[in-house]
Write a structure and sequence with these properties.
This protein starts with a helix and ends in a 9-residue tail after the last helix. It is built from 10 helices and no strands. By secondary structure, the chain is mostly helical.
């Protein structure tokens, strides 16, 4: 938090204040809930609820797919393979969140941001956590990597998420075709009809699959029809369950 608040103060891309941004109180809630509280809830569901089905699948499939195991590989190789596999999975899941109407009704919360900065990385519905973790769980854990490699990848992915949403005037030069950045990701949040730039860490997925889009200007951010989207915390939590959630 301190690093990004200071960096945005020193080298801002846009003239805006973190502490007076719209709905900053709500975003502090999302940051606290999605990074800490939901972890306890998810762990409970995993150990005592319906999500234990995934660990059962893992126990059944892992011996049959032992050739995928990274357990005896060097740490750096485990880290790189995990990073590439996870990032591609998250690129695909992010794409689905925009293209499947029911999933988009949850993802709208993230796109309700009107001023981009690092804490926007945490404005998302709790159901998105279930979608991401559930769809990428088996492919990642069948790799049987060291838990420290999994932790290192999580740290890097989270840092990139903060960086991509940050209000920073930074150019990556030719590396923009490899790594995501604030200039690239802001166009994912642009208020335009067709979604682009689904990258989390690596932007080359979007260039490879022709979903990349940038322009030499700062776009209006949000989503089309946002004026119908509720502003209160409770309404945003239940919005996807309402009959009009696809409008």
């Amino acid at each position: 938090m301190g690093i990004f608040i200071a960096a945005e103060k020193i080298l801002p891309a846009r003239n805006q204040s973190f502490f007076t941004r719209p709905l900053i109180g709500q975003d502090i809630f999302w940051f606290t809930f999605n990074t800490h509280l939901f972890g306890f809830i998810y762990a409970f569901l995993w150990n005592y609820g319906p999500l234990d089905i995934f660990s059962n699948f893992e126990a059944y499939l892992r011996p049959k797919l032992a050739f995928l195991s990274l357990a005896n590989r060097p740490f750096w190789l485990q880290f790189l393979i995990l990073l590439f596999v996870q990032d591609f999975l998250e690129w695909g899941i992010h794409n689905l969140l925009h293209r499947v109407p029911w999933l988009w009704s949850f993802h709208k919360l993230h796109h309700s941001i009107t001023e981009m900065d690092w804490i926007g990385n945490y404005r998302f519905h709790w159901f998105e956590v279930l979608v991401y973790r559930s769809l990428k769980y088996l492919p990642l854990f069948l790799l049987n990597a060291d838990y420290l490699a999994i932790l290192a990848v999580a740290v890097v992915a989270t840092a990139f998420g903060n960086f991509n949403h940050s209000n920073l005037k930074i150019s990556l030069g030719p590396l923009k075709y490899i790594f995501n950045s604030p200039k690239f990701h802001i166009w994912h949040h642009a208020k335009i009809e067709k979604p682009h730039n689904f990258a989390i860490v690596f932007s080359f997925w979007d260039y490879l699959f022709r979903t990349a889009h940038t322009e030499n200007r700062t776009p209006e951010i949000g989503f089309i029809g946002m004026e119908k989207y509720p502003s209160s915390l409770v309404e945003r939590l239940i919005y996807p369950m309402l009959g009009k959630s696809r409008n």
